[in-house]
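Figure 2 data, in text form.
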Amino acid sequence: MLHAAEYRTPEPFAGQRVVVVGSGTSAVQMAAELAAHAQVNLATRHPVRFAAQRTLGRICTGG
């Protein structure tokens, strides 16, 4: 088990099954980053509402 504050990079999780718990910004961003390296499940109490992110004043849709 690893807390979000201890997470650095997805490489140590390569090829593994990972469960990310939570629906906050940190959890969703970590799950998205990990998905390129591992099989990821996101566990939440409620459905996640995805919204466009703003980076340096520009809207990023992730695509």
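Caption note: DSSP finds one helix and four strands in the chain.
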